[in-house]
Amino acid sequence: MAARRVGRKVIDWAAFAERVPANQKSQFNALKSKADALKTKINTVPEKPLAINWDMYKQSVPVAGLVDKFQKEYDALKVPYPKDTATVKVNAQEKEMDQDVAKFVAESNKRIKEYEAKIEALNNMVPFEDMTVEEYEDMYPELKERKKKYPYWPHFPVWEL
Description:
Layout: H1 13-19, H2 25-44, H3 54-60, H4 66-76, H5 86-124, H6 133-139, H7 141-149
Family: Belongs to the ATPase d subunit family.
Keywords: CF(0), Hydrogen ion transport, Ion transport, Membrane, Mitochondrion, Mitochondrion inner membrane, Transport
GO molecular function: proton transmembrane transporter activity
């Protein structure tokens, strides 16, 4: 029989739920309910099977030696516990994902700083109402090119907007 009880690991579902994206909450809830059902089912089964009362069978089975033969074979039977081959792969994937997350966070922080700088520049610029056309064209050079192509600005084909 198995030497140790299956399912002894405890999962921190709250920490797990924090990492689940909003579009995958239903899949997460389905996984959690399946895991809870399996845990409940495992907990209802005793850790060690009940002992077989061989004496009762010896009294009730009329064939001599049959129960002794079964008892000998039963005692000789050893069910090997399966080896854990997935934990190494999962730990490697976890380390790889941690590196990816750290890289993503660093890149996101860099983008946040860039966006904050852009916001700061927009907050410090002259309001559009007080801006001259030349200042506006300096700020957006692509509009200057459009004005060269269509000198009667702001009249230009609508499909080029």
